[in-house]
Specification:
The protein has 450 residues and is of the alpha+beta class. Helix content is 34%, strand content 26%. The protein has 15 helices and 22 strands. The strands form six sheets. The chain has an eight-stranded antiparallel beta sheet with strand order 13-12-9-10-11-14-21-19, with helices on both faces. A hairpin with an 8-residue loop joins strand 6 and strand 7. Helix 7 packs across helix 8. The termini are far apart.
């Protein structure tokens, strides 16, 4: 089945990213936009554009009814969700299929199965993938949770079973703090996900956060495209990502990749996704979750493999087999990505909506910029604060770092505060340079600077 027109159910840089690949494939695109996003580049780049509601995401980008109506009204064959918003909403997948629209992504059943952390853990155990010690299923009762916590041991993580993005997540250092933190996390989960089911998991102290990119088609073929190190985080939100990870050797890379493939094959998954692990100081790794969508940081994998992941997603959704075999996947050089957010690090990373008075983007060999903003653009207050991604590729890690420093130095943003300087400082940080950084490194750095 060849798609002739695809609706992109997203905004900003990822919407543009998807549209560019569609254009290369000869597929027309439909943009959806809120009233606040009328001047966004993704609206101007599409062949057709439909306003789906007011500025707040709940009334526009999260409106399943409005998105489906836009797709049907413009004669689309398929819908690509990008990341965020409706990307991991199984009900949205069902709604698309009910209207004869192909969802470019996994099946609803897999989104539900992997979105439930307790069920995902059981699936991984069955697939022979190592998992972090934790509760066998979802927990709602505080007394039961307290008993389980004692058995698992402290410190431990309290997670919303239906959650993600750091919502409904708390770390209990000891038994005394557990009851309060469990209640707080549960209330947050109810507000964010309409679910009071929680999951308990042993906390691995200062691990690396490693994710493995996978692709799977409808015919049982599964491959991985290496790993990404996403350990440079603030409040569980990634800041800098790179591939290959400086903390992984070839044997560990092979084993993690094989486990990711086995996990995906075990559940019969289709399309793109990432299998995520934590890696402790002794090089033991444990499954933590699976993201059933394209990731923000997917460009670093594209840079080292030469494979367009969005194109692969579309081809899989059209019923085509994978265009690459595992033995054909070669990681060439190193790549890294810095997220540029319109936030003020000096004011506890307060969002910075407002007009971009000046904007100069970097360029050069091995430098890629994914953005949707331009000089004179006004950043709306309703959405994620990321305004650009700077990606660099070099023959080795040192070269990729040097290019990133150059790119960040060349980048000029006036009118709003951004995280450009913070990214640059982290590229000079000793733990980043020697590759020993972990998920607590940026937190520790900010604490020292405060």
């Amino acid at each position: 089945m060849k798609f002739s027109r695809v609706l992109v159910a997203n905004r900003g840089e990822i919407a543009l990213r998807i549209m560019r690949t569609c254009q290369e494939m000869g597929i027309e695109t439909v943009a959806v936009y809120s009233e606040a996003d009328e001047m966004s580049l993704h609206v101007q780049a599409a062949d057709y554009a439909v306003c789906v509601g007011p500025g707040p995401a709940s009334e526009s980008y999260l409106s399943v009814q409005n998105i489906i109506a836009a797709a049907k009204g413009t004669g689309c064959d398929a819908v690509h969700p990008g990341y965020g918003f409706l990307a991991e909403n199984a009900d949205f997948v069902d709604a698309c299929e009910a209207e004869g629209l192909v969802f470019i992504g996994p099946r609803a059943a897999h989104i539900r199965a992997m979105g439930d952390k307790a069920q995902a853990k059981r699936s991984m155990i069955a697939a022979g993938v190592p998992v972090v010690p934790g509760s066998d299923g979802a927990v709602t009762d505080l007394l039961e949770a307290q008993q389980l916590a004692k058995e698992i041991g402290f410190p431990l993580m309290i997670k919303a079973s239906a959650g993600g993005g750091g919502k409904g997540l708390r770390i209990a250092p000891d038994e005394q703090a557990f009851a309060r933190l469990f209640t707080v996390a549960q209330e947050e989960s109810k507000r964010a996900f309409q679910s009071d089911e929680m999951y308990l998991e042993k906390q691995i102290i200062n691990p690396k956060h490693i994710e493995v990119q996978i692709l799977a088609d409808k015919y049982g073929h599964v491959i991985h495209l290496g790993e990404r190190d996403c350990s440079m985080q603030r409040n569980h939100q990634k800041v800098i990502e790179e591939t290959p990870s400086p903390g992984i050797d070839e044997d560990l890379r092979r084993r993690m990749g094989e486990d990711a493939v086995n996990a995906v094959r075990h559940i019969g998954y289709e399309n793109a996704g990432t299998v995520e692990f934590v890696l402790d100081a002794d090089q033991n790794y444990y499954f933590i979750e699976m993201n059933t969508r394209i990731q923000v940081e997917h460009p670093v994998t594209e840079m080292v493999t030469g494979i367009d992941l969005i194109e692969e997603m579309i081809r899989i959704a059209m019923g085509e087999p994978l265009t690459h075999k595992q033995e054909e996947i070669v990681l060439r050089g190193a790549a890294m990505e810095c997220r540029i957010n319109a936030e003020d690090p000096k004011r506890n990373f307060a969002p910075q909506p407002g007009s971009l008075d000046a904007l100069i983007l970097p360029g050069g060999h091995g430098i890629r910029v994914d953005t949707f903003v331009y000089q004179g653009y006004t950043i709306p207050p309703f959405y994620d604060s990321m305004i650009a991604k700077i990606i660099t590729h070099g023959k080795d890690r040192e070269t990729a770092i040097r290019k990133m420093r150059w790119a960040l130095g060349e980048l000029l943003v006036l009118g709003v505060e951004t995280t450009v300087d913070l990214n640059y400082e982290m590229l000079m940080n000793e733990s980043f340079l020697d590759g020993s950084y972990h998920t607590g490194s940026l937190r520790d750095f900010l604490a020292e600077e405060a």
